[in-house]
From TrEMBL:
Belongs to the class-IV pyridoxal-phosphate-dependent aminotransferase family. InterPro entries: Aminotrans_IV, Aminotransferase-like, BCAT-like_C, Class-IV_PLP-Dep_Aminotrnsfr. Keywords: Aminotransferase, Transferase. SUPFAM superfamilies: D-aminoacid aminotransferase-like PLP-dependent enzymes. The keyword Transferase applies. GO terms for biological process: carboxylic acid biosynthetic process. It comes from Wallemia mellicola. This is D-aminoacid aminotransferase-like PLP-dependent enzyme. It holds the Pfam family Aminotran_4. The keyword Transferase applies. One of its GO terms (molecular function) is transaminase activity.
Length: 230
């Protein structure tokens, strides 16, 4: 059964709320998902239950003094919460390798607008491109996906950002092109770091040929990081 999903970056800073990056946005993501996908009422969502479960998951590993990746799943029927924590490793200080998807992805599913455990389109893209999420110099970290209309969308775990050499602006692909609008992406839009702009696959390929584009990706777990198409 499909559940809501959100992935937290926990860095010890006192309380659980203060220690989770973009905490309020994570809570709102769960509430919005309940309103859209559940027959239950989001007023029955208990934030205290979320905090207690995240605390339990962190304590079950290396404790609250260590940075963690915390995966949270929320049942859409009874709104129960389950969390699992693992130690968080840092991204490297160099660009990680990505490839352009060998096939387009259908982006009309309502579930695509919400982060859930239904990850089939992402898993399919990951599988057909042999993605391992490796951050080594010769590994493949992720894949840049594109839709049936020829527009770039996202990677399997992050939103994408791009900048042309002759343009001072950073851009991110719009949600209307079919992607999961991530929390870090929204934070960067709110701060004025970037603007929404569609990017055609053909435009990206030409910019790569001309060496006229810089690429980054982001999610709420890893923040903003450099990527390089190989």
């Amino acid at each position: 059964m499909t559940k809501l999903l959100t992935t937290l970056r926990y860095t010890p800073k006192g309380s659980i709320k203060d220690s989770i990056y973009l905490y309020d946005m994570h809570v709102q993501r769960l509430i919005d998902g309940i309103d859209a996908l559940s027959s239950s009422n989001s007023v029955d969502f208990k934030e205290e239950a979320l905090i207690n479960e995240v605390t339990r998951a962190i304590n079950a590993t290396e404790g609250t003094e260590t940075p963690h990746r915390v995966s949270v799943q929320l049942d859409l029927v009874d709104l129960s919460i389950n969390a699992a924590a693992t130690r968080l490793t840092n991204m490297p200080d160099y660009a990680v390798n990505v490839v352009i998807d060998s096939e387009p992805t259908e982006t009309n599913s309502q579930l695509l607008r919400y982060k859930t455990t239904d990850r089939d389109i992402y898993n399919d893209s990951k599988s057909r491109n042999n993605i391992t999420y490796s951050t080594t110099h010769d590994g493949l970290f992720d894949v840049l996906m594109h839709n049936n209309q020829g527009f770039m969308t996202e990677t399997t775990i992050a939103n994408i950002f791009y900048k042309f050499q002759n343009d001072d602006n950073w851009y991110t692909t719009p949600a209307s092109d079919g992607l999961l609008p991530g929390l870090m992406r929204q934070s960067l839009l709110d701060s004025g770091y970037c603007k929404e702009r569609s990017l055609r696959l053909s435009e990206l390929k030409q910019a790569l040929k001309d060496e006229n584009v810089i690429l980054k990706a982001s999610n709420a777990l890893r923040g903003l990081f450099d990527i390089m198409i190989v």
